[in-house]
Amino acid sequence: CRIWIPNFSLIAKPLYEATKGAERAPLLWSKEEEASFQSLKQALLQAPSLGLPDLEKPFQLFVDTKRNVAVGVLTQMMGTWHRPVAYLSKQLDNVAKGWPACLKAVAGTAILTQEANKLTFGQQLHIYTPHYYLSLKQQ
């Protein structure tokens, strides 16, 4: 269901953190985890309809990186507007998390391009990212 929820990894981040490295330890469920869980449930109920990918048309991937998570939307043109095909989000690896904002943007773009290729099957892909200045401004 993660491709149906915009910013899935950002919303689910507290849940991932709570379960990381806890093989047999009891799960600690705080207000933050509860809020994350409720937000995911609500997002799933309000999930937008996505278009089926048309492998005859080029794809567009809009990427941003915030709070160490790469988020993006894969679209295709339908008339004059971009129709979402999938919402993508992945946490940056531990090495990339320590990089400056400009390199995090590059890492996020690379990660989401790999994820998008699973849906585009190597078809033409146009990638759009915010200007580096915007990444610095948001810090």
TrEMBL record:
Pfam families: RT_RNaseH_2 (PF17919). This is Reverse transcriptase/retrotransposon-derived protein RNase H-like domain-containing protein. It comes from Pseudonaja textilis (Eastern brown snake). Residues 29-126 form the Reverse transcriptase/retrotransposon-derived protein RNase H-like domain.
